[in-house]
Design a protein that fits this description.
Layout: E1 2-8, E2 11-17, H1 23-30, E3 49-52, E4 55-58, E5 70-72, H2 85-92, H3 102-115, H4 121-128, H5 138-160
Parallel strand pairs: 1-5
Antiparallel strand pairs: 1-2, 3-4, 3-5
Helix pairs in contact: 2-5
The structure holds FE2/S2 (inorganic) cluster (2 copies).
One FE2/S2 (inorganic) cluster (FES) binds at residues 38-41, 43-48, 58, 60.
Length: 161
């Protein structure tokens, strides 16, 4: 065991774990963050996605000892009691069905929009590729992301008018 320091959602944590422990287990079991979920454990579904220094990362296959950057989980998106625009769009478009994959979908969408705030349909599909949904909510996911893109563009236009 060794003490590992992690910065998660703006707070510093120290955990005493094996460095090879998957980050997902530490986030859920040691820090009590239920946003990232265990789906496959094999980097194949995306349910465990968190953002590390802006990059959507599959925490089930990321050894905790190798993490140096700032980690953001779903719990870190809402600010001052206000949902992140993506969370609100997910509600407005009624995206989830069973809901199991959705945390990973939202985190992947956030990383996508942070690096490209105005993606084309094809870029959204490409950015979200590989985050699996057994309930086939892909069309509503696309609609929710486009809703955020439209409202970000409208706010920018208003601000420059
Ligand atoms: S649980 Fe990590 S990719 Fe499936
Ligand atoms: S909403 Fe059920 S797996 Fe995606």
């Amino acid at each position: 065991m060794s003490v590992v320091s992690l910065r998660v959602n703006g707070a510093l944590h120290e955990v005493d774990v094996e460095a090879s422990t998957p980050l997902l287990y530490v986030l859920r079991n040691d820090l009590g963050l239920r946003g990232p979920r265990f789906g496959c454990g094999l980097a194949q579904c995306g349910a465990c996605t968190v953002i590390i220094d802006g990059v959507a990362t599959r925490s089930c296959v990321t050894p905790v000892g190798q993490v140096n950057g700032e980690i953001t989980t779903l719990e870190g998106l809402a600010k001052d009691g206000k949902l992140h625009p993506l969370q609100q769009a997910w509600i407005d478009e009624q995206v989830p069905q069973c809901g199991y994959c959705q945390n990973g979908q939202i985190m992947t969408a956030k990383a996508l929009l942070d690096r490209n705030p105005n993606p084309t349909d094809a870029e959204i599909r490409e950015g979200m590729e590989g985050v699996l949904c057994r309930c086939m909510t892909y069309y509503r996911i696309q609609a929710a992301i486009k809703r955020v893109v439209r409202s970000t563009a409208a706010s920018a236009e208003e601000a420059s008018a």
